[in-house]
Design a protein that fits this description.
By secondary structure, this protein is mainly beta. It has one helix at 73-84; strands at residues 7-11, 23-29, 34-39, 52-58, 61-68, 87-94, 100-111, 115-117, 120-129, 134-137. The chain contains one helix and ten strands. The strands form two sheets. Strands 1-2-5-9-7-6 form a six-stranded antiparallel barrel.
């Protein structure tokens, strides 16, 4: 999914406030939310089909390719989160026609090498969503 108008924002607190855009997303492979299921067949049911209930949900993994300015400390801290074993609070802003934000806490699970592209730097990063994703209308 091409995300050249989708922007990345980072929170330096615990996800209560997100700053200005820190990078443009050149390519985005969004995660898929999933849910576990548990068999919960009713004993003595008048049918011979299994029944299920929901278990825990998973917010998925996102893979991004970013383009950003050299010296961008927010992007470096996100990349360093892998080595430091710290969690990040990120927000994606999707312009019209989607007009939504997605905010989540995550673990950085993969960091690609920096590649110079003209006056910018390009880098891929993969994150694993940790907890729920909050969606809101884009203001």
């Amino acid at each position: 999914m091409l995300g050249n108008k989708v922007t990345l924002h980072r929170s330096t607190d615990t996800g209560t406030a997100y700053g200005e855009k820190i990078a443009n997303i050149v390519d985005l492979q969004p995660g898929a939310k999933t849910a576990e299921t548990h068999e919960n067949t009713t004993y003595g049911a008048e049918h011979d089909y299994k029944e299920y209930d929901y278990g825990l949900k998973d917010g998925g993994e996102y893979t991004f390719v970013f383009k950003y300015e050299p010296g961008n400390t927010d992007m470096e801290e996100i990349a360093d989160a892998l080595d430091n074993s710290t969690k990040e609070y990120l927000q994606l802003q999707f312009p019209a026609p989607i007009s939504k934000t997605k905010s989540f806490r995550c673990l950085v699970t993969e960091v690609g090498d920096q590649t110079p592209v003209g006056e910018h730097i390009k880098r891929s990063i993969k994150v694993k969503v940790d907890g729920p994703i909050t969606e809101a209308a884009l203001a």
